Amino acid sequence: MFLTALLLLAFVPGQMSRRSPNGIPFLFEDFNLVSDSVLPRFAEPIQNVTVTIGKDALMACVVENLRNYKVAWVRVDTQTILSIHHHVITQNPRVSLSYNDHRSWYLHISNVQEIDRGWYMCQVNTDPMRSRAGYLQVVVPPRIVGGDSTKELVVRESTDMRLECHAEGYPEPYVMWRREDGKDMNYNGDIVNVVDGEILHINRVSRLHMGTYLCIASNGVPPSISRRVSLKVQFPPMLSIPNQLEGAYIGQDVTLGCQTEAFPSSINYWTTDNGDMIVSGEKYETSSSDDGYSRYMTLKIRNVTSRDFGSYQCVAKNSLGETDGVIKLEEIPSPLARTTVPTFIAVDKSRNKMKQERYSKQYEEYHRDNKVFVTESQLDAISTSPKPALNNSPNLKSSVAATFCLFLLYLS
After folding, report:
1. Which of 27, 152, 163, 170 gives 140 a disulfide partner, CB atoms 3.0 to 4.6 angstroms apart?
2. Do residues 198 and 152 touch, judged by C-beta distance below 8 A?
């Protein structure tokens, strides 16, 4: 490499190489005294470049008024000469050089790797040397270390559970855990949606923790990556009955229901009060619907007869245990026949008013004769007040009789 540089220098009379105080080689120096106004100058800074690992990087060095001076690219941290003017010096096959109009000089690095991260310097062989440097940043998307992309963990209920997920990348990835369905989770007494960190540790895991969890690693470099972990929580069957007592009348179809929870999934069936297993047929229809570890089982009894009244048992069992519940079916009376509602004929209010005016004068005359007189408001009070018991008083009987006659007269 250095032999090549020396050969190139041999074709440039009056120029030689030496090292700068910081140890970086000055590949070109011109000891002739030249006015600064005619010396090469950099038209712009060398831009820092950020590139994802595996991609290609391009660093540009723009020099004006270069004339007969030469440009070189140097790797600063390793003090490696990459190129001198039109020639590539390094033996790295991923490094190449291009230039344009004796002004723009481009350093190409293909299939960038993490070892390429660092400072790169563009030098011009003036005296003293003129240079500019730019930084090549190589970023690496996150990667989860070890294991398959999906795994399954099975634990017993009420035990402690620990999930680990380690990631690497540059910058260092941020790792978090959450449920795949997006629901909140009970994390050791706190209701949270996300748990930060590489470790998810749950004390006394319950069936409510069952589900798929995602370990997500991200560092701002796409794409983010995740790992799925399916958590299974084993527990023996549990059973609940919404209605332990059901009623039906003869000839009715009735449905009994039973809710169970179990993992592994339980075997569910119905029995009669004498222990016979019930199977679907013309008389009975059994069915069930699953929702995760929950199952709702039903028993439909068609055309109920007197022999169908009694107790029915729903049973659930798995490898960890079994349980059952009883539903009692009792007879209820058949629905009564519909009764007819009597129809009332409305009385014309104007006609009643005319009758009231016609007889009001007769009421006044009767009152002047010291007879028993009952006004309309009193009639209303009599109709709504408790009825007193009649005694043998002749005056009371005659008063009641007179009142009744007047009432009839008013209604006619």
Report:
1. 170
2. no
Alpha-carbon torsion (98, 103, 104, 107), positive or negative? positive
CB atoms within 10 A of CB 69: 19
Contact assessment for residue 56 and residue 112, using Cβ atoms and an 8 Å cutoff: yes
Q: How far, in Å, CA of 145 to CA of 143, rounded? A: 6
Contacts of 97 (CB under 8 A, 6+ apart): 73, 82, 83, 86, 87, 88, 105, 106, 107, 108
Q: How far apart are CA 252 and CA 329, in angstroms?
A: 12
SS (H, E, C) 236-267: EEEEECCCCEEEECCCCCEEEEEEEEEECCCE
The residues that bridge with 212 in the sheet, in sequence order, are: 230
CB neighbours of residue 63 within 10 Å: 21
Average the pLDDT over 188-217 and give the result.
96
List Cβ neighbours of 257 (8 Å cut-off, separation of 6 or more). Answer: 241, 242, 243, 296, 297, 298, 299
Res. 233: pLDDT tops 90: yes
Per-residue pLDDT band for 143 (boundaries 50, 70, 90) equals very high
Q: In sequence order, what are the residues at sequence separation of 6 or more whose Cβ sits closer than 8 angstroms to the Cβ of residue 132?
A: 42, 45, 46, 61, 121, 122
Backbone angles phi, psi at 61, to 5 degrees: -130, 115
pLDDT at 337 over 90: no
Q: Which of 107, 111, 106, 167 is nearest to 138 (CA)?
A: 111
Q: Which two tokens stand for residue 310?
A: 């009694």
Which two tokens mark 131? 């240079």
Q: Which amino acid is at 255?
A: T
Residue 197 gets which letter from DSSP? S
Residue 101: predicted pLDDT: 83
| CA angle centred on 268, ends 263 and 270, rounded to 5° | 155
Looking at residues 319-345, what average pLDDT do you find? 77
**Which tens digit of pLDDT belongs to each residue from 53-64?**
999 999 999 999
Residue type, 374: V
For 318-330, the pLDDT digits (tens) are 999 999 999 999 9
**Torsion angle, alpha carbons of 342, 345, 347, 348, to 10:** 150
For the cut 70, the answer to whether the pLDDT of residue 122 exceeds it is yes
Conformation bin of residue 292: beta by default, left when phi > 0, alpha when psi is -120 to 50 = left
Percentage helix, strand, coil for the chain under 3-state DSSP, each rounded to 5: 15, 45, 40
How many angstroms separate the CA atoms of 74 and 322, rounded? 77
